[in-house]
Amino acid sequence: MIEFGGWEMSLQYAGIVEEHLAVRSAAGLFDVSHMGKLLVEGARAHAFLDGLSANTIPSTSGRARYTHLLREDGTILDDVIVTCLDPRRYFLVCNAGPRAAVRSWLDTHRPAEVAVEDETDELLCLALQGPRAAELLQRFTRTDLSRIRPFGAAVLELVAPVGGAPPEGLRPPEMEGWGSATMEGPPPGPGPRGREPTVSTGRAGVLVIRTGYTGEDGFEIFPPASTATWVWGTLLAEGASAGLRPVGLGARDTLRLEKGYLLSGQDFDGRQTPLEVGCEWVVKWDRPFLGRE
Predict the structure, then answer these.
(1) CATH code at 48?
(2) What is the predicted pLDDT for the residue at 195?
(3) N or C end of the chain, less CB within 10 A?
(4) For residues 170 and 143, what is the distance between their CA atoms, to the nearest angstrom?
Protein backbone atom coordinates (compact mmCIF):
# COMPACT_ATOMS: atom_id res chain seq x y z
CA MET A 1 0.00 0.00 0.00
CA ILE A 2 1.16 3.52 -0.78
CA GLU A 3 -0.20 7.04 -0.33
CA PHE A 4 -1.39 8.69 -3.54
CA GLY A 5 -3.35 11.92 -3.79
CA GLY A 6 -4.29 11.72 -0.12
CA TRP A 7 -5.55 8.12 -0.43
CA GLU A 8 -4.05 4.79 0.57
CA MET A 9 -3.90 2.59 -2.50
CA SER A 10 -2.58 -0.80 -3.57
CA LEU A 11 0.61 -0.48 -5.61
CA GLN A 12 0.30 -4.06 -6.85
CA TYR A 13 -1.45 -7.38 -6.20
CA ALA A 14 0.35 -10.24 -7.99
CA GLY A 15 2.98 -7.97 -9.52
CA ILE A 16 3.15 -4.95 -11.82
CA VAL A 17 4.32 -6.83 -14.93
CA GLU A 18 1.76 -9.62 -14.53
CA GLU A 19 -1.04 -7.12 -14.00
CA HIS A 20 0.06 -4.98 -16.96
CA LEU A 21 0.05 -8.00 -19.27
CA ALA A 22 -3.32 -9.18 -17.97
CA VAL A 23 -4.91 -5.89 -19.04
CA ARG A 24 -3.31 -6.08 -22.48
CA SER A 25 -4.28 -9.72 -23.07
CA ALA A 26 -7.53 -10.22 -21.15
CA ALA A 27 -8.81 -7.79 -18.50
CA GLY A 28 -7.95 -6.02 -15.28
CA LEU A 29 -10.06 -4.49 -12.53
CA PHE A 30 -8.85 -1.29 -10.85
CA ASP A 31 -10.17 0.38 -7.71
CA VAL A 32 -9.77 4.05 -8.62
CA SER A 33 -12.25 5.42 -6.13
CA HIS A 34 -9.73 8.12 -5.20
CA MET A 35 -10.79 10.06 -8.31
CA GLY A 36 -12.93 13.11 -7.57
CA LYS A 37 -16.61 12.76 -8.54
CA LEU A 38 -18.69 15.93 -8.74
CA LEU A 39 -22.29 16.54 -9.79
CA VAL A 40 -22.99 19.86 -11.50
CA GLU A 41 -26.70 20.66 -11.79
CA GLY A 42 -28.99 23.46 -12.88
CA ALA A 43 -30.62 25.19 -15.82
CA ARG A 44 -27.30 26.81 -16.83
CA ALA A 45 -25.06 23.84 -16.03
CA HIS A 46 -24.04 23.25 -19.65
CA ALA A 47 -23.17 26.87 -20.41
CA PHE A 48 -21.29 27.11 -17.11
CA LEU A 49 -19.09 24.06 -17.74
CA ASP A 50 -18.59 24.87 -21.41
CA GLY A 51 -17.29 28.32 -20.48
CA LEU A 52 -14.60 26.83 -18.20
CA SER A 53 -13.56 24.04 -20.57
CA ALA A 54 -11.01 23.94 -23.37
CA ASN A 55 -13.10 21.28 -25.15
CA THR A 56 -16.81 21.49 -25.87
CA ILE A 57 -19.08 19.92 -23.27
CA PRO A 58 -21.65 17.44 -24.65
CA SER A 59 -25.32 18.32 -24.26
CA THR A 60 -26.68 14.90 -25.24
CA SER A 61 -27.57 12.52 -22.42
CA GLY A 62 -25.18 9.59 -22.25
CA ARG A 63 -22.19 11.31 -23.88
CA ALA A 64 -18.86 12.01 -22.13
CA ARG A 65 -15.85 14.10 -23.13
CA TYR A 66 -12.24 14.52 -22.04
CA THR A 67 -11.25 18.15 -21.48
CA HIS A 68 -9.06 20.56 -19.54
CA LEU A 69 -10.37 23.06 -17.01
CA LEU A 70 -8.37 26.26 -17.54
CA ARG A 71 -7.44 29.31 -15.50
CA GLU A 72 -7.64 32.84 -16.87
CA ASP A 73 -4.05 32.61 -18.16
CA GLY A 74 -4.76 29.38 -20.05
CA THR A 75 -2.87 27.07 -17.69
CA ILE A 76 -4.42 23.71 -16.82
CA LEU A 77 -6.19 23.43 -13.49
CA ASP A 78 -6.94 19.74 -14.14
CA ASP A 79 -7.81 17.31 -16.90
CA VAL A 80 -11.27 15.84 -16.40
CA ILE A 81 -14.00 13.77 -18.03
CA VAL A 82 -17.47 15.33 -18.09
CA THR A 83 -20.55 13.19 -18.75
CA CYS A 84 -23.96 14.59 -19.64
CA LEU A 85 -26.54 12.76 -17.54
CA ASP A 86 -29.21 15.06 -18.96
CA PRO A 87 -29.03 18.68 -20.21
CA ARG A 88 -29.28 20.02 -16.66
CA ARG A 89 -27.08 17.50 -14.89
CA TYR A 90 -23.40 16.64 -15.43
CA PHE A 91 -21.02 14.19 -13.80
CA LEU A 92 -17.42 15.43 -13.62
CA VAL A 93 -14.51 13.10 -12.78
CA CYS A 94 -11.29 14.88 -11.78
CA ASN A 95 -7.95 13.81 -10.34
CA ALA A 96 -7.61 13.18 -6.61
CA GLY A 97 -4.85 15.71 -5.93
CA PRO A 98 -6.57 18.78 -7.46
CA ARG A 99 -10.05 17.76 -6.30
CA ALA A 100 -10.37 20.50 -3.66
CA ALA A 101 -9.02 23.09 -6.11
CA VAL A 102 -11.47 21.96 -8.80
CA ARG A 103 -14.41 22.14 -6.40
CA SER A 104 -13.33 25.61 -5.23
CA TRP A 105 -12.85 26.79 -8.83
CA LEU A 106 -16.32 25.63 -9.81
CA ASP A 107 -17.89 27.22 -6.73
CA THR A 108 -16.09 30.50 -7.40
CA HIS A 109 -17.34 30.76 -10.98
CA ARG A 110 -20.77 29.14 -10.84
CA PRO A 111 -23.91 31.25 -11.29
CA ALA A 112 -26.66 31.12 -8.69
CA GLU A 113 -28.69 28.76 -10.90
CA VAL A 114 -26.01 26.05 -10.73
CA ALA A 115 -25.19 23.76 -7.80
CA VAL A 116 -22.05 21.66 -7.35
CA GLU A 117 -22.03 18.61 -5.08
CA ASP A 118 -19.06 16.39 -4.20
CA GLU A 119 -20.05 12.71 -4.45
CA THR A 120 -16.52 11.29 -4.04
CA ASP A 121 -17.26 9.52 -0.75
CA GLU A 122 -20.68 8.26 -1.85
CA LEU A 123 -19.68 6.75 -5.21
CA LEU A 124 -16.75 4.44 -5.85
CA CYS A 125 -15.05 3.94 -9.21
CA LEU A 126 -14.11 0.48 -10.44
CA ALA A 127 -12.40 0.41 -13.85
CA LEU A 128 -12.79 -2.80 -15.85
CA GLN A 129 -10.24 -2.60 -18.67
CA GLY A 130 -8.96 -4.88 -21.40
CA PRO A 131 -10.00 -6.67 -24.60
CA ARG A 132 -12.38 -8.96 -22.67
CA ALA A 133 -13.91 -6.19 -20.53
CA ALA A 134 -17.13 -5.86 -22.52
CA GLU A 135 -17.61 -9.63 -22.66
CA LEU A 136 -17.24 -9.92 -18.88
CA LEU A 137 -19.45 -6.96 -17.97
CA GLN A 138 -22.14 -8.16 -20.40
CA ARG A 139 -22.67 -11.19 -18.16
CA PHE A 140 -23.93 -8.83 -15.43
CA THR A 141 -26.48 -6.76 -17.35
CA ARG A 142 -29.32 -6.96 -19.87
CA THR A 143 -28.22 -3.65 -21.39
CA ASP A 144 -26.63 -4.25 -24.79
CA LEU A 145 -23.10 -2.97 -24.19
CA SER A 146 -22.26 -3.08 -27.90
CA ARG A 147 -24.54 -0.06 -28.28
CA ILE A 148 -22.49 2.05 -25.85
CA ARG A 149 -19.79 3.71 -27.89
CA PRO A 150 -16.43 4.87 -26.46
CA PHE A 151 -17.15 7.89 -24.26
CA GLY A 152 -20.75 6.77 -24.01
CA ALA A 153 -22.59 6.25 -20.72
CA ALA A 154 -25.61 4.39 -19.42
CA VAL A 155 -27.33 3.43 -16.20
CA LEU A 156 -27.17 -0.35 -15.82
CA GLU A 157 -28.87 -2.81 -13.53
CA LEU A 158 -26.12 -5.21 -12.43
CA VAL A 159 -27.19 -8.75 -11.56
CA ALA A 160 -25.24 -11.86 -10.59
CA PRO A 161 -24.51 -13.87 -13.75
CA VAL A 162 -25.85 -17.39 -14.22
CA GLY A 163 -23.70 -19.96 -15.96
CA GLY A 164 -21.13 -17.46 -17.25
CA ALA A 165 -23.40 -16.31 -20.09
CA PRO A 166 -24.96 -12.90 -20.77
CA PRO A 167 -28.66 -12.55 -19.89
CA GLU A 168 -31.19 -13.16 -22.66
CA GLY A 169 -33.20 -10.35 -24.21
CA LEU A 170 -30.65 -7.54 -24.39
CA ARG A 171 -32.13 -4.04 -24.38
CA PRO A 172 -30.90 -0.60 -25.46
CA PRO A 173 -28.86 1.58 -23.07
CA GLU A 174 -30.75 4.11 -20.99
CA MET A 175 -29.84 7.24 -19.07
CA GLU A 176 -33.25 8.61 -18.12
CA GLY A 177 -33.25 6.93 -14.74
CA TRP A 178 -30.47 9.06 -13.29
CA GLY A 179 -32.47 11.20 -10.86
CA SER A 180 -34.91 12.23 -13.56
CA ALA A 181 -37.67 12.92 -11.04
CA THR A 182 -35.63 15.70 -9.46
CA MET A 183 -35.37 17.62 -12.74
CA GLU A 184 -38.92 18.92 -12.44
CA GLY A 185 -39.62 22.20 -10.70
CA PRO A 186 -37.15 24.94 -9.74
CA PRO A 187 -33.40 24.68 -10.28
CA PRO A 188 -31.59 22.66 -7.61
CA GLY A 189 -30.46 24.47 -4.50
CA PRO A 190 -28.58 23.52 -1.35
CA GLY A 191 -29.56 20.40 0.52
CA PRO A 192 -29.96 16.71 -0.29
CA ARG A 193 -31.69 15.62 -3.50
CA GLY A 194 -32.65 12.14 -4.65
CA ARG A 195 -29.96 10.96 -7.05
CA GLU A 196 -29.99 7.19 -6.79
CA PRO A 197 -29.98 6.05 -10.43
CA THR A 198 -32.68 3.62 -11.48
CA VAL A 199 -33.45 1.70 -14.64
CA SER A 200 -36.83 1.67 -16.37
CA THR A 201 -37.95 -1.31 -14.29
CA GLY A 202 -37.62 0.84 -11.18
CA ARG A 203 -34.70 -1.19 -9.84
CA ALA A 204 -31.45 0.38 -8.65
CA GLY A 205 -28.93 1.18 -11.36
CA VAL A 206 -25.24 1.99 -11.60
CA LEU A 207 -23.68 4.66 -13.81
CA VAL A 208 -21.19 3.13 -16.27
CA ILE A 209 -19.04 5.09 -18.73
CA ARG A 210 -17.04 3.51 -21.58
CA THR A 211 -13.78 5.24 -20.70
CA GLY A 212 -10.47 4.31 -19.10
CA TYR A 213 -6.82 5.14 -18.56
CA THR A 214 -5.08 2.16 -20.15
CA GLY A 215 -5.42 2.43 -23.93
CA GLU A 216 -7.69 -0.64 -23.93
CA ASP A 217 -11.44 -0.88 -24.28
CA GLY A 218 -13.17 -0.76 -20.93
CA PHE A 219 -15.74 0.69 -18.58
CA GLU A 220 -15.59 2.84 -15.48
CA ILE A 221 -18.29 1.69 -13.05
CA PHE A 222 -19.57 4.00 -10.30
CA PRO A 223 -21.43 1.91 -7.71
CA PRO A 224 -22.58 3.39 -4.41
CA ALA A 225 -20.40 2.52 -1.43
CA SER A 226 -23.08 0.15 -0.13
CA THR A 227 -22.78 -2.24 -3.10
CA ALA A 228 -19.22 -1.65 -4.34
CA THR A 229 -17.72 -4.58 -2.42
CA TRP A 230 -20.21 -6.95 -4.06
CA VAL A 231 -19.45 -5.54 -7.53
CA TRP A 232 -15.67 -5.86 -6.98
CA GLY A 233 -15.78 -9.38 -5.58
CA THR A 234 -18.33 -10.78 -8.01
CA LEU A 235 -16.59 -9.35 -11.06
CA LEU A 236 -13.25 -10.85 -9.98
CA ALA A 237 -14.78 -14.24 -9.21
CA GLU A 238 -16.71 -14.39 -12.48
CA GLY A 239 -13.79 -13.18 -14.59
CA ALA A 240 -10.97 -15.21 -13.06
CA SER A 241 -11.26 -18.03 -15.60
CA ALA A 242 -11.16 -15.48 -18.43
CA GLY A 243 -7.91 -13.97 -17.14
CA LEU A 244 -9.34 -11.04 -15.16
CA ARG A 245 -6.95 -9.84 -12.46
CA PRO A 246 -7.04 -7.05 -9.85
CA VAL A 247 -4.63 -4.28 -10.86
CA GLY A 248 -2.83 -1.77 -8.68
CA LEU A 249 -1.44 1.71 -9.12
CA GLY A 250 1.89 0.52 -10.51
CA ALA A 251 0.49 -1.13 -13.62
CA ARG A 252 -2.01 1.69 -14.02
CA ASP A 253 0.96 4.00 -14.47
CA THR A 254 2.84 1.77 -16.94
CA LEU A 255 -0.32 1.25 -18.99
CA ARG A 256 -1.08 4.95 -19.26
CA LEU A 257 2.58 5.67 -20.13
CA GLU A 258 2.40 3.26 -23.08
CA LYS A 259 -0.72 5.06 -24.29
CA GLY A 260 0.73 8.54 -23.68
CA TYR A 261 -1.93 9.74 -21.27
CA LEU A 262 -1.12 12.70 -19.02
CA LEU A 263 -0.71 12.35 -15.25
CA SER A 264 -1.74 15.33 -13.13
CA GLY A 265 1.12 16.56 -10.96
CA GLN A 266 3.72 14.87 -13.14
CA ASP A 267 3.09 15.81 -16.79
CA PHE A 268 1.49 19.12 -15.82
CA ASP A 269 1.64 20.95 -12.51
CA GLY A 270 -0.50 24.03 -13.00
CA ARG A 271 2.04 26.03 -15.01
CA GLN A 272 1.44 24.58 -18.48
CA THR A 273 -1.20 25.22 -21.13
CA PRO A 274 -2.74 22.42 -23.22
CA LEU A 275 -0.45 23.41 -26.08
CA GLU A 276 2.64 23.00 -23.91
CA VAL A 277 1.74 19.41 -23.00
CA GLY A 278 0.96 18.34 -26.57
CA CYS A 279 -2.83 18.57 -26.24
CA GLU A 280 -3.83 21.26 -28.73
CA TRP A 281 -6.33 18.70 -30.07
CA VAL A 282 -8.32 19.17 -26.85
CA VAL A 283 -8.85 22.90 -27.49
CA LYS A 284 -11.85 23.93 -29.58
CA TRP A 285 -11.03 27.49 -30.60
CA ASP A 286 -14.31 28.40 -32.33
CA ARG A 287 -16.06 29.40 -29.10
CA PRO A 288 -15.44 31.58 -26.05
CA PHE A 289 -14.02 29.96 -22.91
CA LEU A 290 -12.00 31.03 -19.90
CA GLY A 291 -8.29 31.14 -20.74
CA ARG A 292 -8.77 31.28 -24.51
CA GLU A 293 -6.90 34.54 -24.99
Answers:
(1) 3.30.70.1400
(2) 60
(3) C
(4) 5
Domain count across the chain: 2
What do you get for the CA distance between the two ends of the chain, in Å? 43
Residue 50 domain-assigned? yes
Beta strands in the chain (DSSP E): 2-4, 7-9, 27-31, 36-42, 63-70, 76-86, 89-94, 114-118, 126-129, 153-156, 206-209, 218-222, 244-247
CATH number at residue 18: 3.30.1360.120
Phi, psi of 255, rounded to the nearest 5 degrees: -65, -45
Name the residue range of residue 60's domain. 36-122+260-282
* pLDDT higher than threshold 70 for residue 194: no
Residue 57 lies in a domain: yes
CA 165 – CA 119 distance, rounded (Å): 33
pLDDT digits (tens, 9 = 90+) for 231-263: 999 999 999 999 999 999 999 999 999 999 999
In a domain? residue 153 = yes
* pLDDT one-digit tens code per residue, 266-276: 889 889 999 99
